[in-house]
Amino acid sequence: MTFNEFRGHFLTRYEAAKLSDCAPATLVRHPDVVSVGGFIPGDELYPALQFDRDGSPTPGLGALAEQLSPHLADAEIASFCTRPLRQLGGKSPIDWLRAGRPVEVAARAAFAD
User: Fold this and answer.
1) What residues contact 109, with CB distance under 8 A and at least 6 apart?
2) Which domain holds residue 91?
3) Nearest Cα to 65, choosing from 30, 19, 25?
């Protein structure tokens, strides 16, 4: 398996910046953009699912990731964000946030029984 096959639906910093139509340094500081550690220190990856078709990041995703990061690993947060949840009316957390719903409710859903 090559690195690009493994990388799948992740973007490099430069790919994500191009998609978002912003400079890489701006992307790194954007409050709604999240990254996961890369294979090389300083070479993070950006889950593609956080960007809408027009390249804009999902509002509130950064805040959600910040609330979950003390309890979950990056990969667990990415997986959680894509699963439909009963607590969110069958929506995934990413779709919940895209609909303008509260970050706090999505965060609580991560720890619901």
Assistant:
1) 85, 87, 88, 93
2) 3-109
3) 30
Per-residue pLDDT of the chain (113 residues; tens, 9 = 90+): 444 444 458 888 999 999 999 999 899 889 999 888 766 666 788 888 889 888 899 999 999 999 999 999 887 888 899 899 999 999 999 999 999 999 999 999 998 86
pTM: 0.79
**Count of domains forming the chain:** 1
Convert 74-87 to b/e letters by CB count within 10 Å (16 or more is b): beebbebbeeebeb
Cβ atoms within 10 Å of 100's Cβ, excluding its own: 8
